[in-house]
Amino acid sequence: MDAVRARGITKCFGDVVALDGVDLDLAAGQIHGLVGPNGAGKTTLLGLLLGLAVPDEGSLEILGAPVGRALTAPDGVAGFVDGPGLYPQLTARQNLAALAKLRGRSASIDDVLADVGLSDVADDKVRGFSLGMRQRLGLAAALLTEPRLLVLDEPSNGLDPAGKRHVHGVLTRLADNGVTVIVSSHRMDDVEALCTEVTILATGRVVFTGPLDKLSAENRELDYRLRTSDPLVAAETAAETPGITVVDSGELLVVRAEIPALDELVSRLVRAGTAVRELAPVVSPLEAAFLALTEEAAR
Ligand SMILES: Nc1ncnc2c1ncn2[C@@H]1O[C@H](COP(=O)(O)OP(=O)(O)OP(=O)(O)O)[C@@H](O)[C@H]1O
Q: What ipTM, to 2 d.p.?
């Protein structure tokens, strides 16, 4: 059973079409990234999954149950959009205790605080928490209900690199135990590190949905940065290699190519006795695909 099955979802706010015929399938135990430019409809879509709003058109099934017209959180779903809702005057532990009382069913408060790395500040008031600590507490609040679908709007916001790694570890463990996770993010490197599948939204429409490696395969020509022992020879060799376009021939050579042409260029450089000291995509495959697809949609 899919955790989410959405077909033809449309949601308008007055004249603004926030979602326009969106289809989405989330398999159980998957960590799915939701990306798109500002205003693409990510928060609106996540809000529908959390039961904060209902679609104007289309059908939505969550954890096997059709979503009706009532504004209620579907059973088994937890998370947040636009930052977690917390009581600043209460401590982290008191916030979670208040939520547990409201919701009835609950995991251990100490366990979820430990999961997100907040045990040491459990009895501190949330008023004094940094953005990253609030995000972690928001995740703890979601974990309290032991959800089968976790919906998180930019959960890495404000997290330092260690915090991000910690949260990624928590989400990966949940997914390994069959929990489905959907996260929105503006950070392509986070999505690449965490997710196996991604949906790209642009102006309310899905412009790509599927595995990350399929996305890279569909957008094969990328810009690569090449640092060598001899920039002049490198630029000349690149210009002579079939399938290579020289984008910039300064100290650092930038070429546009698919992988086979790039391999040929590296072999030719080695044969010419030129050492390759650095070779890397200028932007990641996901970021390149994101830019290409969203620019196309905007046009
Ligand atoms: N409550 C609302 N009232 C009116 N318009 C809204 C409302 N919520 C969203 N919109 C509009 O719907 C569109 C999609 O907004 P949404 O917040 O879902 O985008 P987003 O992809 O999450 O953007 P961001 O990356 O900036 O957070 C935007 O044009 C936004 O202005």
A: 0.97
